[in-house]
Design brief:
Layout lengths: L1 E7 L2 E6 L9 E11 L1 H8 L8 E2 L3 E9 L11 E4 L2 E2 L5 H4 L10 E2 L11 E5 L3 E3 L6 H4 L2 H14 L6 E5 L3 H13 L3 E5 L3 H9 L4 E3 L6 H8 L4 E6 L4 H7 L3 E9 L13 H6 L3 E4 L7 H10 L8 E6 L6 H4 L7 E5 L2
Parallel strand pairs: 11-12, 11-14, 12-13, 14-15, 15-16, 17-18
Antiparallel strand pairs: 1-2, 1-4, 3-5, 3-9, 3-18, 5-6, 6-10, 7-8
Helix pairs in contact: 4-5, 4-10
Length: 337
């Protein structure tokens, strides 16, 4: 099979590998489409740790080719997507219901071979069937959407809330839609790229801010004088993370959702956090949200078709790092066919 293999920082090669074989509790999946996310870009740049060499990619949909001998719930021909995170079910985090924080977490495309390949394998317990009405590309949004669902759950967005989203890329657009479904009445998206602001408006943002020409704090005060109930920093930008803390109202929540470089620090004023009783949270991965994400996509409650800006063949995989983050780039989709 052909696969995009990450060997080290800024060293990805599309090459031939032996076809993987499923263990008794695993399924072999023919990948149809795989999205590219910020984590993939961070892996490529060396900003996120990986176990080299590894086939990159984890946002995908495909078709079961073979089910292991112990698998009863899936069969060849089933269209599927996955939760790409394998956990141990035995550590204190798993046993307390926080499996996404597992001490032995093994994620596709990071610690174990992923889905930018013709074929991949995954434990059957992590595999979810997708309905026929959902396209492969739409189903490839299941994993990022599950992460957005978890982030909005964790932030506690409530009916009538004012939510500020810093960053209007694909994840910012998914969080905007999830916040809307959670009941937020006012959703403000701060994003310097016009295309992304337009898409945020189409996906439920009530207001947009261009931080390149507008002061975010001043514009937010015009919308709600006391600040946002919940602030999501989605870009993984350290300067934005430091700046977003004063944008929450007293008693509000600041959610660091974006993946920032592992070796970077930000400076915050603890007096502001204490005096205003702010909650500063991080959101990692997804916690039992994959089935909910499939349902949101299948029913059309969350729309993703407009978020795809580029489609690439696997042989052209290296182009994703040239395109990623561009002014006309949203979700990059790698097609195996």
């Amino acid at each position: 099979m052909r696969a995009a293999v990450l060997y080290k920082e800024r060293d990805v090669r599309v090459e031939d590998l032996p076809d993987p074989r499923p263990a008794p509790d695993e399924v072999l999946i023919r990948v149809r489409a795989c999205g590219v996310c910020g984590t993939d870009n961070s892996l490529y740049k060396g900003e996120y740790p990986a176990r080299y060499p590894v086939v990159i990619g984890h946002e995908f949909a495909g078709e079961v080719v073979e089910a292991g001998s112990a698998v009863r719930s899936l069969a060849p021909g089933d269209r599927v997507t996955v939760d790409p995170n394998k956990v141990c079910h035995a550590c204190p985090y798993c046993q307390s219901g926080n499996e996404h924080l597992c001490e032995s977490l093994s994620s596709m495309g990071v610690h174990r071979d992923g889905a930018d390949a013709d074929l991949c394998i995954m434990p059957a317990t992590n595999v979810y069937k997708i309905p026929e009405g959902l396209s492969d590309e739409e189903a490839s949004f299941t994993e990022p959407l599950a992460c957005a669902v978890h982030g909005v759950d964790l932030a506690g967005v409530r009916l009538g809330d004012t939510v500020l989203v810093i960053g209007g890329g694909p994840m910012g657009n998914l969080i905007t839609q999830c916040a809307s479904h959670a009941g937020a009445a006012t959703i403000v998206v701060s994003e310097p790229i016009a295309l992304r602001r337009e898409l945020a408006r189409a996906h439920g943002a009530t207001h947009t801010i261009d931080p390149g020409s507008q002061a975010v704090d001043k514009e937010l005060k015009k919308i709600r004088r006391i600040g946002a109930d919940v602030v999501f920093e989605v870009a993984g930008n350290c300067a934005a993370q430091a700046a977003c803390i004063p944008l929450a109202r007293k008693g509000g929540t600041v959610m660091f959702f974006g993946v920032s470089p592992q070796d970077k620090l930000i400076q915050v004023n603890p007096f502001v956090i204490n005096e205003n009783e702010l909650k500063v949270l991080g959101s990692f991965n997804n916690q039992f949200a994959t089935a909910r994400a499939v349902e949101l996509l299948a029913t059309g409650a969350v729309k993703v078709a407009k978020l795809i800006s580029h489609r690439l063949a696997l042989k052209d995989y290296l182009d994703v790092f040239r395109l990623f983050g561009g002014r006309d780039t949203m979700k990059l989709m790698v097609r195996m066919d």
